[in-house]
Amino acid sequence: MKALIISADGFEDSELLVPYYRLKEAGVTVDVASLKKGAISGKHGYAIEANHTLQEIKPGEYDLLVLPGGKAPEAVRAAKAALDIVKAFFLDNKPVAAICHGPQILVSAGVMRGRRATCYKTVAGELRQAGAAYEEREVVVDGNLITSRQPSDLPAFMREIMKKILRKP
Amino acid sequence: MKALIISADGFEDSELLVPYYRLKEAGVTVDVASLKKGAISGKHGYAIEANHTLQEIKPGEYDLLVLPGGKAPEAVRAAKAALDIVKAFFLDNKPVAAICHGPQILVSAGVMRGRRATCYKTVAGELRQAGAAYEEREVVVDGNLITSRQPSDLPAFMREIMKKILRKP
User: Is the domain defined by A2-166 classed in CATH 3.40.50.880?
Assistant: First the structure.
């Protein structure tokens, strides 16, 4: 099994590191893609290696997409290659998990219409404007889409992610 | 099921947060005990609430003890109440998991003689002096004792912790 995390400088450290380590615990191969290859830095100073550029990613090779929050989604949502990856996951109905500001990338990819979802409270407005039904809950699962609000939701977020990918054939 | 994390200011953030969220994901109740009640701060600036003082802890109520690293173990190992908790876990043969500088607390509690274990590389000397057989591996399991070296070992560390506590009746 293979997971892809897309992020950039300014990521919310725990929202990237907790899924990263949790997926590896389960034996999942985890790739990190960003605008360019090399170390990206979190708000709290953790560094993690982006081992791929967005351009290099073949979405068909992955079973899960994770979009952490922080300031990173602001940069990621401006990259067409990231939005193309998101759309490919949705077209294949494959699991996409976004937390905090991560759903901003989904808004820019235009995949939120008619979806139930949550996000960081300041992002709720643009989620609604994009046609989603915003819910104030620790985790919302709607088909392939798993969303959470903030770091304290990570236990529920990871529980639903692991359920979703371990159910896969 | 109930887990206890003992730490203090200066903890290595990911070594506390990853176990904290992972255990909660599995439905485990997690208490955090420190020298005094209230927020403790990690090296990277994360704050977590210590909801108990060390003195308040009844070790018999817990199924797992976790000792994160960073600078915190230096303060924790000087607290007799912490060492008494560690000894109680070992006497009951209950799971104790320590990472990075966390094993320093085990050294001070005098429970390392004849044990196979690992730790952060700069701590290896005092582990050996305490009578332990130091191993340079991502995780070492010896009976009730689970030890790891550093944050990048967290997947293996958590995998062994979860195996150990989920095997419990």
Answer: yes
Domain boundaries, chain B: 2-166
Span B130-163, pLDDT tens digits: 999 999 999 999 999 999 999 999 999 999 999 9
Please name the amino acid found at residue A166: L
Report strand pairing: B47-50 vs B38-41.
Answer: antiparallel
Q: How far is CA B41 from CA B12, B30, B72, in A?
A: 9, 17, 10
What residues of B are in contact with residue A154 (Cβ under 8 Å)?
Answer: 21, 25
* ipTM for the predicted complex: 0.94
B101 flagged as catalytic: yes
Per-residue pLDDT tens over the stretch B34-77: 999 999 999 999 999 999 999 999 999 999 999 999 999 999 99
Q: Is A159 on the interface with B (CB under 8 A)?
A: yes
**Which residue do the tokens 């274990």 mark?**
B117
Per residue, the 3-state secondary structure of A77-144, as one string, reads CCCHHHHHHHHHHHHCCCCEEEECCCHHHHHHHCCCCCCEECCCHHHHHHHHHCCCEECCCCEEEECC
Confirm or reject contact between B58 and chain A (CB < 8 A).
no
Can you give the three-state secondary structure of chain B, one letter per residue?
CEEEEECCCCECHHHHHHHHHHHHHCCCEEEEEECCCEEEEECCCCEEEECEEHHHCCHHHCCEEEECCECHHHHHCCCHHHHHHHHHHHHCCCCEEEECCCHHHHHHHCCCCCCEECCCHHHHHHHHHCCCEECCCCEEEECCEEEECCHHHHHHHHHHHHHHHHCCC
CB–CB contact A17 B14 (8 Å): yes
**Mutate which of A24, A25, A163 to disrupt the B interface (most B C-beta within 10 Å)?**
A25
